[in-house]
Q: What sequence folds into this?
């Protein structure tokens, strides 16, 4: 079946550096994508989302890039801080957005070294 | 600050016992999701509702799991009988129509 997958299960960066977390998706009908951050013992927290009619969206210190040609999604975190340490999940809406349910990738653990 | 609430936060039970997890979605949200998270499988969608009607429960083991929305402010997930393989963190999330889901803090279930 189709699923969302991640290229890197763990990522370690130095405080102040930029982080890039990647995600591959396989369902060409997906039209909505979300990045979530999950800290230990907590539920996933929304970071940023993007619809398929866009290829880039920026938030505060975060940018999501969508490449529909190669079905690739990335999350860029600028000036990474210790508080950014968490597991990051990408999620896609697999059925063209008709229902709103999401399929999640396995997650990437981001560790920020002080 | 509107949040999804879940009870209990932790549950330890013995195999064969019934487990009921409860969720209060954000007021005004009409879509409720139940996800299960394990180290091996990650976040899996179990079921979801819109306007209290089940839209998809294909991710849920039908023989032991059941999900309901008695009213717009309460969603329940029951496991009967529970098994050790059900040990996981169960998340409820709510959203408005096709909008992004907001997750609760989860219920950590341990079945001995």
A:
């Amino acid at each position: 079946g189709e699923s969302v997958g991640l290229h890197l299960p763990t990522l370690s960066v130095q405080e102040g550096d930029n982080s890039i977390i990647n995600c591959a998706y396989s369902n060409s009908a997906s039209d909505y994508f979300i990045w979530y951050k999950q800290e230990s013992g907590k539920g996933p927290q929304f970071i940023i989302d993007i619809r398929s009619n866009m290829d880039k969206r920026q938030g505060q210190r975060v940018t999501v890039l969508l490449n529909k040609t190669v079905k690739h999604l990335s999350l860029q975190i600028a000036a990474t801080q210790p508080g950014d340490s968490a597991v990051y999940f990408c999620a896609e809406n697999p059925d063209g957005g008709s229902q709103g349910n999401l399929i999640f990738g396995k997650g990437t653990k981001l560790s920020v070294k002080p | 600050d509107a949040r999804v609430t879940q009870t209990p936060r932790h549950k330890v039970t013995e195999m064969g016992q019934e487990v009921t997890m409860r969720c209060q979605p954000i007021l005004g949200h009409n879509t409720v999701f139940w996800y299960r998270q394990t180290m091996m499988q990650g976040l899996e969608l179990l079921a979801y509702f819109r306007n209290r009607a089940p839209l998809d429960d294909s991710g849920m083991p039908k023989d032991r799991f059941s999900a309901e929305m008695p009213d717009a402010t309460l969603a329940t997930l029951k496991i009967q009988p529970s098994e050790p393989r059900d040990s996981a963190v169960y998340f409820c999330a709510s959203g408005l129509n096709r909008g992004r889901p907001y997750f609760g803090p989860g219920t950590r279930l341990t079945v001995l």
Remarks:
- Chain B touches chain A through 24 residues (CB under 8 Å).
- Residues 79 and 94 of chain B are 21 Å apart (CA to CA).
